[in-house]
Amino acid sequence: MLGGGLRSLYPDYKHRANFVFVYIMEAHAKDEWPLGTRRSLFDQHKTTQDRINVARYLLGENSNATFTSDMTDDARIPLVVDPIGNPFNNIYAAWPESMYIMEGDRMAYMHCPIDPLLHDVARQYLENRYDNKA
User: Fold this and answer.
1) Phi, then psi, of 55 in degrees rounded to 5
2) 5-22: b (≥16 Cβ within 10 Å) or e
3) Tens of pLDDT along 101-127?
């Protein structure tokens, strides 16, 4: 399910930190690097609209999930799509489920690819940054 440990970080810090989920290229696209039919559902996106369509599908499949395309929905993390030229991925060398914490115009924290401790380390960073007040 989309979201994982972010589901617990977001409610605690959403009023002090901005969260956004960037949907990038498919890591294990059916036509490039499949991991079987249960994990590789989509071909690699050929257009930005393809990527938007898959993001909408994922949001629909996870209607009670952590993410939303509605930027005014304060209950869930906004999901945006990296355009087909992959500018976000090109700048940040993103891996699936990586986490970046930005402060102003600098990257203050980065962890990729995801591991079981990712959200614990991110929580510790946020606690230290925001004085351990949830």
Assistant:
1) -60, -45
2) bbbebbeebeeeeeeebe
3) 888 888 887 776 555 566 777 788 888
Residues 6+ apart with CB under 8 A from 29: 40, 42, 43, 44
Residue pair 19/83 in contact (Cβ under 8 Å)? The answer is no
Number of domains in the chain: 1
Higher pLDDT among residues 29 and 69, named by residue: 69
- Share the mean pLDDT of the chain: 79
41 vs 38 pLDDT, higher one: 41
Q: Please report whether residue 34 resides in a domain.
A: yes
Q: Is residue 62 part of a domain?
A: yes
Kindly list the strands in the beta sheet with 77-81, ordered across the sheet, starting from the edge strand earlier in the chain.
21-23, 77-81, 67-68
Look up tokens 């696209």; give the residue.
29
